[in-house]
């Protein structure tokens, strides 16, 4: 697909090519590899790049995955982390871009789950670092004042909402964060 610049902008069009696409049933997702090259340039030029797009397909807009899909959601979050860690040749972790239709409900829920799973060392089931239940919960001072309870999920959502209002929109989305964390702790 060739993408032309918006009217009034002096830029070259670029070509987006779907290099590979795979359905991963156990993670309920599609994994696509895409390349972006300015039109007329060699694909190996410094202005070109390749990225992986991951799409979780069992998460409805304004909702949460069904209970039977929550195991695949945890697998998806772990797969995103694994793909991200394995992508650069230099061993660094490139940024992950997360979005849904509005960029707040499902996006905030995914970011909160990923962040908390990383904090508790639960992203990789085979991680060599053992889980330490005595490890204190993450503490981020809130601009809104102290929370009444030291709840890591509430703290994470609060911190996200300070950066972008409405992150994790619905109480059902908050509940699914707890459910995914519980499932991950049970896996350990």
Description:
- Residues 127-150 are annotated as: Disordered.
- Residues 74-175 form the Tyrosine specific protein phosphatases domain.
- Residues 140-150 have a biased composition (Low complexity).
- InterPro entries: Prot-tyrosine_phosphatase-like (IPR029021), Protein-Tyr_Phosphatase (IPR050348), PTP_cat (IPR000242), Tyr_Pase_cat (IPR003595), Tyr_Pase_dom (IPR000387).
- The chain is of the alpha+beta class and 188 residues long.
- It has helices at residues 70-85, 105-119, 152-163, 171-187, and strands spanning 2-3, 14-24, 29-38, 49-56.
- A four-stranded antiparallel sheet has the order 1-2-3-4.
- A hairpin with a 4-residue loop joins strand 2 (14-24) and strand 3 (29-38).
- The radius of gyration is 19 Å and the shape is globular.
How many structural units, i.e. domains? 2
Annotation, overall tally of beta strands: 4
CATH first level of the largest domain? Alpha Beta
The assigned CATH architecture of the largest domain is Alpha-Beta Complex
Overall pLDDT score? 85
Helices, by number, come to 4
Query: Cα-atom Rg, whole angstroms?
Result: 19 Å
Based on secondary structure, the structural category is alpha+beta
- In spatial order, strands of the major sheet run 1-2-3-4
């Amino acid at each position: 697909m060739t993408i032309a610049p918006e009217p009034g902008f002096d830029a070259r069009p670029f070509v987006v090519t779907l290099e590979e696409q795979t359905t991963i049933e156990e993670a309920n997702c599609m994994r696509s590899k895409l390349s972006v090259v300015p039109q007329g340039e060699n694909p190996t030029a410094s202005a070109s790049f390749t990225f992986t797009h991951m799409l979780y397909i069992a998460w409805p807009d304004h909702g949460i995955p069904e209970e039977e899909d929550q195991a695949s959601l945890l697998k998806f979050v772990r797969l995103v982390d694994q793909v991200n860690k394995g992508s650069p040749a230099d061993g660094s972790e490139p940024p992950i871009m997360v979005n849904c239709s509005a960029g707040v409900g499902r996006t905030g829920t995914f970011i909160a789950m990923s962040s908390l799973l990383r904090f508790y060392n639960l992203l990789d089931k085979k991680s060599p670092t053992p889980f330490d239940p005595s490890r204190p919960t993450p503490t981020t001072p809130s601009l809104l004042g102290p929370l009444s309870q030291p709840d890591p999920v509430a703290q994470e959502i609060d911190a996200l909402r300070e950066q972008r209002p409405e992150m994790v929109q619905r109480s059902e989305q908050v509940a699914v964060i707890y459910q995914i964390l519980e499932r991950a702790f049970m896996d350990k």
